[in-house]
Design a protein that fits this description.
two-stranded antiparallel ribbon, mainly alpha
């Protein structure tokens, strides 16, 4: 009941960020869109009474959800083959979208941008030969390069005593959404209620990323708000264009799902 209450208010359109940084001006127009536009999006479906169309499991619709993300299992099962995203990842993005819509309705976060960042950052938890398990964990852990100031990387001395990245000298981006430890410490959340908040768990990372992206009162339904959010995640214009392209593609493909 708590979960259903949290998910009662559903928004559409929007996107996310996880790394600390300052957004720059919107980039030059990515083809075929412009900085004044946001990607095409398709929100998590709603039931006729206005609450999310939630199915605990496509194979056992009357079962009690084993984790909060299972409330969108039916939607994810229908959407996954159309958009080419693993169901486990899609449940994480869909549930995070609903939670953020309930908590920060003015942000207008969309699952398509969460998915796009997940794709660009880690191939939905499958980069570097990792496997995204059914519980949302990417194993072995996806650890980025040391942020030691070399080869164009940021200089971020260690902030977590090596807890998440195994390095006591410098921080690294960690997990499917590539959080740096200092940002994870601020936005960490146990989204799947397994007793721990872990950046290697896509369920936790997706919701934390949504909360981070919406910080500061951004409205991701607007072009300016969307680009500012993605550029705050990574200020490289080519990165933002890649996220736009992926998000727009997911939105267009998702229209085929009734």
């Amino acid at each position: 009941m708590v979960i259903l209450t949290l998910l009662a208010a559903v928004g559409t359109a929007g996107n996310i960020a996880v790394r600390a940084g300052t957004a720059t001006a919107p980039p030059p127009s990515p083809t075929p869109a412009s900085p004044s536009s946001a990607p095409m999006v398709s929100g998590v479906p709603q039931a006729p009474d206005g609450e999310p169309a939630a199915s605990p499991s496509p194979s056992a619709p009357d079962a009690t959800p084993s984790r909060p993300q299972d409330v969108v299992a039916g939607w994810a099962a229908r959407m996954a083959p159309v958009v080419g995203i693993p169901e486990t990842a899609l449940k994480a993005y869909g549930y995070a979208t609903l939670r953020v819509a309930a908590d920060v309705p003015t942000c207008h976060l969309s699952w398509t941008t969460l998915a796009a960042i997940g794709e660009v950052e880690s191939g939905h938890g499958q980069a570097n030969h990792a496997t995204l398990a059914s519980d949302g964990f990417a194993l072995p852990p996806i650890i980025g390069a040391a942020l030691d100031g070399h080869d164009g990387r940021q200089l971020l001395p260690d902030t977590d005593a090596g807890r998440w990245d195994g390095d006591k000298a410098f921080d690294h981006a960690v997990g499917p959404m590539q959080f740096v430890p200092q940002t994870w410490q601020q936005y960490a959340i146990d989204a799947d209620q397994d007793g721990q908040a872990d950046p290697n768990d896509l369920n936790d990372a997706a919701l934390a990323a949504g909360r981070y992206l919406c910080a500061g009162g951004k409205d991701l339904a607007t072009g300016g708000g969307w680009w500012a959010a993605v550029l705050s995640y990574n200020e490289l214009q080519e990165y933002a264009k890649a996220v736009f392209t992926a998000a727009d593609d997911y939105g267009r493909r998702s229209r085929a799902v009734a």
